[in-house]
Write a structure and sequence with these properties.
single chain; 89 residues; mainly alpha; 4 helices; 2 strands; 7% strand
Amino acid sequence: MSVSRLVVKMPIPRLVNMNPRNSSAAGVPDEPLIDVNELATWLAISPNTLRKWIHKGPEARLMPRMLRINGQLRFRPADVRAWLEEKAQ
């Protein structure tokens, strides 16, 4: 006898600040993480250019600090802003 399974795919919600008084101490980000396409749009560059920078590695210092979550690259907006400030100097 065959049993069929019903698989329901639920979207993963973005993290939100659960502790507005002191989110950094709680380890909860103030802003949602952004992906490669969102960062490319923010920087006004092609996503392929950003992927080339990523491929060169962090030692090339061509991009902000990144996180790899379940194989997906993500960036913290605060890290991107800090990286942009560093590049502006």
